[in-house]
Structure formats: C-alpha cells, structure tokens
Design the sequence.
C-alpha cells in the first residue's frame, strides 16, 4: 500500500510538471498572437490618424 501511494505521488508530480509546461506553451502561443493583433491595431489607428481618416467606433 505504501509503495502504491509513493508511486501515485510520483506520477502526480510528473503530471503536474507536464501540465505546467503545456500551459506555458499554450499561453506563449496565445501571447504571440495577441502581440501581432495589437501591433496591427496600433498600425491601423496610426495610419488612419496620419491620413486624417475617421476611425469607426
């Protein structure tokens, strides 16, 4: 019984690390996409101001 609990703890520890790493990769990808979208929005606003165009609300 004691060995089974130790094995379970070890497995849970390994799974925690795996889930943590997976979340970091997922969030990193999401942040990269958001950075691109933010830069695109900034550029659009800047261009519209530059050419004195109305920005839709």
Sequence:
């Amino acid at each position: 019984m004691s060995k089974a609990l130790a094995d379970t703890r070890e497995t849970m520890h390994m799974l925690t690390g795996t889930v943590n790493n997976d979340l970091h990769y997922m969030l990193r990808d999401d942040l990269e996409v958001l950075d691109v979208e933010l830069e695109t929005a900034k550029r659009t606003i800047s261009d519209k101001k530059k050419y004195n165009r109305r920005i839709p609300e």
